[in-house]
Each structure stands twice: as C-alpha cells, then as structure tokens.
# Entry
Amino acid sequence: MGPRPSHPLPTPLRRPCSVFILDSRATSHVVGDVSLFSPSFRSRTPTTTAGSPAAAYQAHDGRVLTVAGVGTVSCDNHRVAYARCVPDLCTGLNLVSVQQLADCGYLVMFGGGQCSVMEQSSGKITGKGRLHADDSLYHLEFLDIPHDKTCEDSTPT
# Structure
C-alpha cells in the first residue's frame, strides 16, 4: 500500500474505482465510468469559455469521443474536480491531465520512478504515484483536487 494523503478523503467518497493515470498528453481530466462521479453530477454538454459546445474529446488513438458532462470524480483515494465524463473511453481508464493540473495552480514532479502533485500556493502534496513497469505509466495512488472557483475559468475544453 502506498502513501496516503495527509487528510484521507471522507468515507462517503471511498467508492472503489479503477486506475488513475497521470497523462502529459491529455488536455483535460477524462473518466469513462459515470458511476465514479459525485451524486450531484448531471449529464450536460460542457462549453468553452466562449460559450460554444465542447462536447468532444480526442483520444490518443485519434478517435473523437462524446463528452457527456463535467463533474467531480470521488472514489477510493481520488477526488478530481473538472473531470470530463467520456462514456466510450476504455473501461477502467481514468486520465489526469498534467496540463489541466498546471493550469489550475498545481506543480507536477517526476523523478526516481515516482510522481507528486503539489498545490503551488501552499506547497501541500495533493497526489502521489509511481511508475509501473508493466505499462510504463504513472499510476496515482492518491489525488485530491477539489472544486475551486478560480480554476473553473482556466479548465481546458
């Protein structure tokens, strides 16, 4: 078992979930399983800051997938605000965008087979993960990215 957040997520948020991958190519956080979203999640079409529809996500393999809505994912030791619900994403795959984290005031650090996510303003570690030899991807052991009004405007579409 890996390191735990300094303040574990509340018990109602500890629903089981699949792997969260820290992805430097993703432009936004994407999750395929609508059941991982908080109970207040409502399927809706997200919009860009200009108000135009942003209802598509281009996967790494080139497919253009429909975005069913945007919300907060809360499960196990993971809470991620501003995640896009993409039902056609591979089952069990959740991508956390390095770009979106940086745009929202987080630093992402890699080294020695480990990764950390730190809130830039406070220096608080909000996530940790490790490199997995079987797929060469960084799997997050915990991540806590709460809803933040100042981040809403900088969230990529």
About this structure: The mean pLDDT is 80. The domain at 21-147 is CATH 2.40.70 (Cathepsin D, subunit A; domain 1). The helical segments are 98-103, 149-152.
